[in-house]
Amino acid sequence: MLQLSHIHHIAIICSDYERSKQFYTDILGLTILQEVYRAERQSYKLDLCVSGQYQIELFSFPNPPQRPSRPEASGLRHLAFAVPDLDAAVTHLTGQGVQTEPIRIDEHTGRRFTFFADPDGLPLELYES
Questions:
Q1: What tens-digit pLDDT sequence spans the chain (129 residues)?
Q2: InterPro entries from the xrefs (predicted)?
Q3: Sign for the pseudo-dihedral over CA of 12, 17, 23, 28
Q4: What CA–CA distance (Å, rounded) separates 120 from 122?
């Protein structure tokens, strides 16, 4: 049997590298681990840390195709972040000009959650833990 131990990283391709870098670091508060420019690919790669455990790789490529639809396109549906206080997180995002959907209740767990989008429309979720 394959023995997967944990998720190593999540890769996101953005259309405007500086705008997405600012969103993920300044608004979401992720920590930069490393940033490199790969000239042969005309691409930046930014390694971001989520709470000291997980890593998001933010890539820029020339002219990436658009996401076909939101959120039910085939492939990754959304990326969810756990937060201890959903109301405080929503207040922070709205204060930064990020629009969130109305808070919903997970019918199976009773936990509250909401969705918002990154600068490229990638669906992101906040899930109260």
A1: 867 667 778 989 998 999 999 999 999 999 999 999 999 989 999 999 998 888 999 999 888 877 676 656 666 678 999 999 999 999 999 999 999 999 999 999 999 999 999 998 888 999 998
A2: Fosfomycin_Res_Enzymes, Glyas_Bleomycin-R_OHBP_Dase, Glyas_Fos-R_dOase_dom, VOC_core, YwkD-like_dom
A3: positive
A4: 6
In one-letter notation, the amino acid at residue 57 is: E
Residue 58: which H helix or E strand, with range?
strand 54-60
Total-model pTM: 0.83
User: What letter would DSSP give residue 97?
Assistant: T
Q: 1-63 with 73-129: one CATH topology?
A: yes
Pair type for strands 54-60 and 10-14: parallel
